[in-house]
User: Fold these one by one.
Assistant:
Number 1:
Amino acid sequence: MLGCPRGWFFRVALTSAFLLRPEQHSRLPVARLAPRARSQAPGSLRCSLGYLKVEMTESTNVSLKRGSVAIEDDDRVASAEEAKRQKVSECCSATGQDGRENSSLPSSEKVPGPPETAGQGKKTSEVPSEEEEEEDGLSEEGEEEEEVESFADMMKHGLSELDVGISKFVSSHQGFSGILKERYSDFVVHEIGRDGRISHLSDLSVPVDEEDPSEDVFTVLTAEEKQRLEELQLFKNKETSVAIEVIEDTKEKRTIIHQAIKSLFPGLETKTEDREGKKYIVAYHAAGKKALANPRKHSWPKSRGSYCHFVLYKENKDTMDAINLLSKYLRVKPNIFSYMGTKDKRAITVQEIAVLKITAQRLAHLNKCLMNFKLGNFSYQKNPLKLGELQGNHFTVVLRNITGTDNQVEQAMNSLKEIGFINYYGMQRFGTTAVPTYQVGRAILQNSWAEVMDLILKPRSGAEKGYLVKCREEWAKTKDPAAALRKLPVKRCVEGQLLRGLSKYGMKNIVSAFGIIPRNNRLMYIHSYQSYVWNNMVSKRIDEYGLKPVPGDLVLKGATATFIEEDDVNNYSIHDVVMPLPGFDVIYPKHKISEAYREMLTADNLDIDNMRHKIRDYSLSGAYRKIIIRPQNVSWEVVAYDDPKIPLFNTDVDNLEGKPPPVFASEGKYRALKMDFSLPPSTYATMAIREVLKMDTSIKNQTQLNTTWLR
């Protein structure tokens, strides 16, 4: 946390709670803060990046009043984090980890990592390999100053909601102000599974299995033995086997060593040998290098399901980062994990994960080693999870220090429950920098590969990490991908991956160079463009026809889209109407909005009648999306409280630890709105909050309203 002297305060936008990384907050210097207004009573300053205040207009207009954030130095938070780090370090030492910080994680959230994996620590003079161990760029002081000075610029040059087509509200209630705390526990997401049940972490116990090894497997091997076994497992040297002497030669001791090696180092097989009157356990490769990619089939009990399903509770980590971290600790490849949906970073999230042939015991052991993670509710099942199988997500959101009257809150929440909100793609879909992701997607669809490269690599307005600024400057000056890449301590970012591709394939083969970026990341750009078109078209549709179905609108019958006919209009409501994301396998409404689609794509040099691309991955089939979403399981409560730092409800971990739920007084200094609601997949809770508060969620709009306080 950033220390802040009395007499200074700082104002910033609500959207930073969703869109800014923690390290960007912590780097705000005192020198950038505005002097406290003279009318403020001495000692009344609250200094904390803990919460953000956004005051809303009292009409349906998009404009708002100033928002604010206070900054506070909380020694207790710092000491608690230090205690956590110490605990993790001790735990990992006990289990043979070397206690190093995992440098593939952002610097603000590093945790002790597992031993280096294959290829790590090896440098090449030009282009690092993808497996190379990378630092996440602990910026030097000069770089930090550079970032800080452009913090306001980053917000100023960001997108506004109007830039991405978000312009309408569905309800007529008065907006009011509220605070969405920086505290992660004020924004909690629980996955809704295939069976319609909301996922909760409620049980940390391990299923009883007679064939599971004992807890001794985690301590029986020394750190040196683990290092030798890992080097053997990852083919780091020319040894074909590793022999471990059995000091206390008993059958039980030998069994534990066998189990430890097979459990902790997948791909290794073991045997017992007598050498000069001493017993040795010899570890060797059972199936060559393929053993690393595929868990050993013969070592898994046939009576047990091949997949261990578990509930993952995580804080401040997106799903892929979490899986990458789990795979490193387990020494397996990430592709043996499966899940139904990805969850955003900036929240507490609870979801189901499945992993192939890893025991619940090994997974549960990670609870002792990882911060901000908990694994539980283990079960063995025959099948993995599949993307898209979830029914949705349940959100618990707290808006603090609300200014709305009980009647205003009642109107807003009843409107959300009964009418819903426009199903816009939220601001997160389009990026936070001066180069929106939809612009890159449009260039891809136009087959303008030089523009794609330029948009990703060119210098841009706004704040970025110092090393990214230097990388972009080097690229603009030299157009030398290897030279620009050397400016990046983080090679796995999109810029680093593209530069690596350009170094490998050359400037005349940008398509192949771009292909080095993971497929999901590449498709994100064109999906962002589809979302950009959809948002704009939905705003036009509501502006033209309002919130009622009209002839020519589209509805779904099963998976097929059909037109609403004149004599059929009364059989539908606005909640049935869908709009297409542009593609080659969709139809468009039979009214003015169809021509609006055509005009928009034509203006972008795209042919709405031919959305197939020369490269199959970038061909857009299209899809349909409901224009109005009515949340399910909506409930709310207004509570009074005095301490702005106390949690206002328990998380799953709180409940597991037996913490009593918070007790609220009938009156207090502040009032908070606690909201619960469920949404289908691919809908944005921020858009629901926007409708309740009549809030513009863009960074740019918030900054323009706060420039007085940023000077």
Number 2:
Amino acid sequence: MNGHGEEGQSAFEIGVVVPRRVFKEGAESDDCVEVLVDEFRKVGLIVDRVLGFQEEFLKLASPLETLGRAAAELQLKKQTHIGMELPFQWDEAQAFVRQPDGALFSWCERFHCYRHIIYGVMNKSNSVLTLKYDSKEFHWEPGEPLLRKLELEGIIKEVFPLHDEIKRNQLLGSWALNGWDFTRQPIDEIYSYFGTKIATYFAFLGMYTRWILFPAVFGLMLQLVDFGSMQVLVLPTFFISIIVWAALFFQFWKRKNSALLARWQISCPVGASPGCKFLEMEWSSLQLQSPVELIKKWGSDKTKEKELFQREEWAGRLRRFRNDAIIILSIICLQLPFELAYAHLYEVIGSELMKFGLTVVYLFAIQYFNKIGGKISVYLIKYENNESTEYSADSLIYKVFGLYFMQSYIGIFYHALLHRNILTLRRVLIQRQIVSEVLENLMENSLPFLKYSYKKYRAIRKKRKREKGSLVGKMQFNFRVEKEYLKPSYSASVGEELEDGLFDDFLELALQFGMIMMFACAFPLAFVFAALNNIAEIRTDALKLLAMFRRPIPRAAATIGAWLNIFQFLMVMSICTNCVLLVCLYDQEGKWKIEPGLAAIFIMEHILLLIKFVFSRIVPEEPAWVRANRMKNTTQAQNVYSKQLLRSISGNEKVFASLEKIE
């Protein structure tokens, strides 16, 4: 292959779905599906046609050369062996750094190339072609993408990624079904198979689970050991230790994130803005007006350019502020009374069984509140002047988290601050944590299977009805591509056009972190429940992605983005809430006297805030080797550009000198 090396047999990675029908002989020349298959083969794709129960599936694979030439057409930037990022050239493929698994392109890059190839099939003739589908005819205009045309005509039902069975089975054995090492994960293999965003999530989850073992052991010790008169000092010590733990964890996570990006050849700093995109592969168009559009609209007058950009910037910020205010007022007016009513009922009900049942009903009911709030948030985001879909996704995260923050913690604040009943607070925390974690894991793992089973049942029922009862006995799906098509997609519960399923997984982690941190002094044992849940979560999330959902569309996000800000906000909140809890614990008479012990708690609050700030400055966000490599690559790039520039200047000087001699 032109010296570029083989990467093994090409696996089928893309599926195209069309309705199944009885094909008439002699109609091959102008049948739109036949034309599509021929065009796919002409551009170098390998096509395998599969007839399912109701649909026909076109499985697509691509030789390395076809993907390489597509990457060159896209001017896809890749890192070279001297550290510079340059547009990819197929004839110079040896100059570019390969992925950790030895492949030339990552899954994210390959999917981007596939989309460019299949949506780039156009009518290159100068005449209109007439295509047929059964008795229907339509015109294929010159320069019109064929796949997009068939989607608009309703002939192409869906285009979706396919699982690679060999790699999927390897990950099942080494990751999802590997119970020997509770927190070990093949992160590089996950990155190669799923892409950057999912690999970053599991790297964060694994590190968080390992780190949480320390406060879990400390909390278990507080539960089992009676410290007697020393108990008055143990809780403040535990409180200080978990704040230091959290501050160190987030700083070391940033270091790990930087190391992962360097290993995956991704040039995007951890502290970058949320709009930072890996390889700039923003498949959606920019929201509203870009700077170029603004100049076209308002003219190219340099004196007004700065004013125009500032006007658009502040108009966008005001729109976002307006939308945030709407969400906050909606929470206060609609959700707050519901939350306080639940907290009051929990306080007055005497039976523990009825309290447990009330909690279960409450957790089910709030799902509808959150879905309504999420839809309102998505609607409002459409009118914000966000620079990209990544900024819009972060805006959605902040708004929806505000809804969940209210419904998750307002009842607990009610028991902690108004009633100041620590025993009731502990019971609420135990029930909330156990019920919510069991309920969420049950829904996460059962709903995809139920959706898949229902789609299979409908497909079989329609098949029997179409065959008018001629089919008897048990019917099975023999082709894996059809089974994958029936599986649900990995999408978010709200705002699926902006976020994928990681939205719900990160939300679950953030709510858990807030629960265990903000009420740590009241219930130290919560860290134990969280550790056990996270150990199980690693395996269940892996199994869910590999077996229960379709292969997710790769998303190019190099960091956890807005979620890191939310975790750090919860850490600051936990400093304040735990100081109040300590006041409640040590001031049982309710007189709120500023005695030396209580004054020490308020002083401790300010010291912990200072510690959090100090650790964020002492611990660097990048390892030294990452920083050194980046500086080395920058220096090499500057040297290369300097030499090229000097050669260009010298060449021009010679030309000018020769012209002067001629004159």
Number 3:
Amino acid sequence: MPNFSVNVPQLSSLYSTPKVKRGGTTRMNLCADQVFDKMLLWRGMATKMKFPSCPAAELSDFRRSNKRRSSRRMVSCRAAGADGGRVAVGDDVFSVTTSSKYEVDYLGQSTKGDLNLKLDPLQSFGDGQATLEGPIEEVARTEAQAAENLIRELGIQGPFSAQHSPRGIFCSRTLNLRSISAIGYDMDYTLMHYNVMAWEGKAYDYCMENLKSMGFPVDGLAFDPELVIRGLMIDKEKGNLVKADRFGYVKRAMHGTNMLSNKAVSEIYGRELVDLRNQSRWEFLNTFFSVSEALAYAQMVDRLDDGCISADLGTLDYKGLYKAVAKALFRAHVEGQLKSEIMSKPELFVEPDPELPLALLDQKEAGKKLLLITNSDYHYTDKMMKHSFNKFLPNDMDWRDLFDMVIVSARKPEFFQMSHPLYEVVTGEGLMRPCFKAETGGLYSGGSAQMIESSLNVHGDEILYVGDHIYTDVSVSKVHLRWRTALICRELEEEYKALIGSRGHREELIELINQKEVVGDLFNQLRLALQRRSKGRPAQTLAATNLDDQELTETMQKLLIVMQRLDDKIGLMLESDGELFNKRWGFLSRAGLWDKSHLMRQIEKYADIYTSRVSNFLNYTPFMYFRSQEQSLAHDSPLPDAGMEN
């Protein structure tokens, strides 16, 4: 078996490198496991390059009824001894934890897929064992520093820098990617990103044409995606679009296309919370596909309020108007005109990502079973995947070669909740025949998630599903099947940049709020002293009791003027907070200065990890252990020093 070489003397020379100091403290990135994971990945790539005759998928005509190799390859590498000689290590040294022998680690994650040493760890390195002896705290500090330097020397983007970038993968719930046996992908806006102006603009055009044919006045209306962002809710009873915080309190609202004042928002929604379970009233904008519908609805609300809608259409309220808009857009999708136009010129609508197929190739070669589960039909799926994938795959691979199973017309979310008839697609024209059991390498229509679990012999948290729709892809698969989940949210890249650009604005705003709190605290104390004085009682302290009446009144007057001016300034700055992302709605993930948006709460609740695009997995490895960050509580900061709490 081919070997991958690592020069151990070179690593040893790194041990003497001074520790990196950040802010007066030692910063140690525990990334030795990421270095090792990258070596394993490179070894697999090198093996494939050196041995092009290694087993590859054989395709028979259209059906490509190949059987993927399921046996796990053992990793082999060479380590150099202290004398510079080379010592071979491989199958006799490493073993992989199987699904029948896994344990659960201290973070509650399965150890399936972890690499283990068969030999005594210290015997594996001979003369090098001295570097691994001693207190583990000291050994870890040295090895982590060496690993960090090696990552930098090899030109690898480490996990620390990858996470702190617009294209990081962010973790809500700890996920050991090594324990994942299968990864399923949605297609639209997940494996394939559309140009929103082109795709949603075209959907909007067809929707307007259908509304016009139904008798609605649409002349003079135009597609403006800046009016709407993902994560808003349509209030079908009041004709509003609203943005709520994580608790469901409405923070911003728009009636038709006109933003409402804070006072109007308070008067309308001050006594109620957004409850997405009430589907007759609320419609959550889960994905980019919702943009054209929400925009068309907002514009038609304006027309309804202006009395422009003909009485021939009957008596319409805001809820009835929403049904009409939804029907018009549904016709655009169902009648096939929209997708036919996109299929005829995919280059106008799709933004290819050359790195994406390579990310999936890494996962497949690491032993993951890859699945495509999409609601799109076969013809559309095949055309768009060929356009987006084939030109970026090596060795004349076809997009089908990446996937162990493809499911089209899946009918999500029902796909995750119940069973539907399963059909096998058997010809290039999309001819299907009934099928009762799915097999590896097959192309199917319909079926169910339970069928996939049974066919692949993987279940529950052994499967990671990746999609862009909070409900259809992420929530339902987690709630009903306990699959692990990843959300794709392309807007994260722009939001990350907007947050950086707004840093100075937010720092100034927070400073003003802190000053208001200090001034306000003094004002409140003086107000209490005045209240007690008026009742003939002493103030809080002797000094406060002895304050001259005039001095007390003048100080309170001055403080009140300062606070009122601060309120005016803070109010204007809060209204403009987030305008670098969207001038009307602010940041995607935030509601107000301090709190998370309702969308962000949904992401944290249902998505174990989230990122802007699938190709971001290239910055990590198929063996990555994603650890969630510490969650702060209101009483966490600031904490007193030890011994001062009393």
Number 4:
Amino acid sequence: MVGAPLLSVSRRAFNSSGRLNVKNSLSSNYSTATKTFGNQSILPRLPIPELDATAARYKRSLLPLLSAAEHAQVSQKIDRFVKKDGLGQTLQARMHALDEQEAKLGLSWLDRLWLNRGYLEYRIPTVLNVNWWSQFRDHPDGLISQVPEGTITDFQISRSAGLVSGLLDYSNKINDEAIPPEASRSGPFCMHQIRHMFGTSRIAANPRDTIVTSCPATAKHITVIYKDQIFAVPVLGPNGETVPLKTLENQLRQVVSRVDQLPKEQLQPPVGLMTSEHRDTWGEVRKELETIPTNASTFSAIDSSLFTLCLDNYSSPDDKDLSHRNLAHGKGAHNRWFDKALQIIVESNGRAGINGEHSPCDAVVPQRTVESVLMQEPIVDNLATSNISQLPAPTHLQWSISSKTDQQLKAAQENVDKLIADYDSVLLHYDAYGSDFMKKAKVSPDGWLQMAYQLAYYRQYGKPCPTYESASTRKFLTGRTETVRSCSVESVAFTKAWDNKDIQMKDKLALFGNAIASQSEYMKASSNGHGVDRHLLGLRCQMTPEEAASEEAAIFQDPSYWGSQYWLLSTSNTSPGDLSWGGFGAVVPEGYGANYAIAKQGVKMSISAWNSCADTDATSFRKTVRGVLDEFGQVAEDYLVQK
């Protein structure tokens, strides 16, 4: 998961790191009072960058990662690729033809390519590798302490009902186009991803998964999982009306009561475990299970449900380094359905969060939705709530499995246990300063954090590394993300100089400024659709097998093509993190995943790695990052902040 920056439309503004502030955006030419999709028709289409511009930016991005000889060799291959009448020109023409064809479907040239290549063709387990997690701030009334294991509490049911109610209200507002469209000072943002939150599931299949979704989301039920038992729970009235909180609480209590009273022989197998498996394995199992009408009906109920609520009969430790893991993977991946776009998780003490499947939309969209709900806690019935006091009873979904499937479930448990044991993840809630202080120092908050990661990595490993930062392309119709290659010639010059005692501080700060300027320029270019990674992907996907094997395609055959995308640092800015904070798994075995949220007075971040790699250590890297942040703060106080 590398999501776009987290924005909350109702509260924030575009700051120096390029994040949205509605106060500022309201002064633009685009009203936020129109219907949700009211600006879609005026959005520009995602551009196809000029071939020469991509070649030049790509060459420059390789400079800090290659030797002079290696760079000279690959530069020749790039020049050969983009030359007049060369293969690059042919592929570029095909991309324009593809764009014209996709435009008839309301899509850009990138949409289906990115969905398939970036997500649905990804075959290793999505849990920890693709899915993202987010932990909510505690309820305004706090959490319950010392809840015995195996307990479902009234407070848990109450908070769950409130979260469900808030999300249902948001879903109805999407259906009614009552969510204000987002805009910046430069224009409106695309809202298409909001269509793919509710009633959305990823379906395992070979050789590529699929997505099922519905907009408007017309289902009137959610799925609730308790002790691995899955229920289809009606939560809306016959005409889609929201119902009182007490009615929702009653529905949830029915689920708990019925499961707790079930004899052991009537408990259904934990088929949700299969959603943590390798996608090929799960695809074959699902295909076989669907041939049985009982299972087909169960899959239909799960896939079409608005979202999933997981009621855990335990509480994770208060230690933040441990509590977030329950949101990332649960207890051995039980009581989860990782293929659902939205899984709300509530523990017995009232702690809550979300686990999201990344393919239908970037984390920014559901996280913003959830934040709008969290802002209302404690949630109460509103004037639009109906007086419906009773809904149809929850339906306990049934499975019919063979002994073969039972063995596959046991294998899935073994595999996910190994994956969870390999997962290394820690949090850093840094409170020495935040964006207010960074702005006083006249430094981009996003650039500040990116350079902190660059210096931390250099200090820890003595070398730079390929670094991914996500940029939002939502100013374009159906736009999602583009890559910012944060490791640059300028960032390497800065990291090499910073610890050199022979270099004066004014010179170090000049290099620091150059590095941030380079990162900011790349961010602007990527947000405008002029990064290199999506363009190169598009070109590569236009080749025939014969062309891919030819000398003219040497740009893609060179180790630098894949090597420069081997993201040893994968980062994502989901500022400000006041209401929730999250993370994702490192995207390569030897790498780190770093999610960060910059608030006015502090920074929340998660750092992930894999225990199977002897060279990475999330705890150690966190310590290095913290040291860099402390140092940046002191230097800024001494040299940059006006007294």
